[in-house]
Amino acid sequence: MKKILFLVALIAVLGFTNKDTFIENTAFKIIDDSTLSVIGTSNVKGFECKYDMTDFKSVIPINYILKDGKILLSESTLVLDNINFDCGGRAINRDFIEILKTKKHPRIKLELREINMIHNKNEVNVLVDVSMAGISNTYSIPVNLKKNDKLEVVGNLDLYLDTFNIEAPNKLFGLIQIGNHVEIEFKLFLKEIISKD
Fold this sequence. Notes:
By secondary structure, the chain is mostly beta strands. It has helices spanning 6-13, 90-99; strands at residues 21-30, 35-42, 47-51, 60-67, 70-72, 77-81, 85-86, 107-117, 123-132, 135-147, 151-160, 170-171, 176-194.
């Protein structure tokens, strides 16, 4: 995947910069043990579709302004190719791709609009537009940060399929019913490569 993981990189910068700082050039790299999954339920059992994180191994350069506890930027989009999710089997992978209307809309897009710092210095709120199956909705995502020699970025986003005009399918003549609620869960480890104060 050629798109840069701007969303995670910009959250990561909060762990390395101070307020009212303009950063022209900095970069991050996602390192081992990072995960991103879509978790769902059915009336039989739950399922988890894990994203192939090897797409995010390249260095992530970014430019942005941090002002008054907020990060403001443009053209910051995380793109997830639907076919890069692995749900644990060929049949469920096929169903997942079908649910997301992949033939017409092959990618999930998350466009970052704003990052807000809150009273807890280890937590931020991220305002993001999520586009899936041709429909876009706006969400505020709480994200936890932990910084040592690397930055740990952890969060999850609750979604409902019907808000994207996605009908939860029934399998085996209606005996298996997929739940309307899904969760995007991520735990990412990042290392700063280049920084300019």
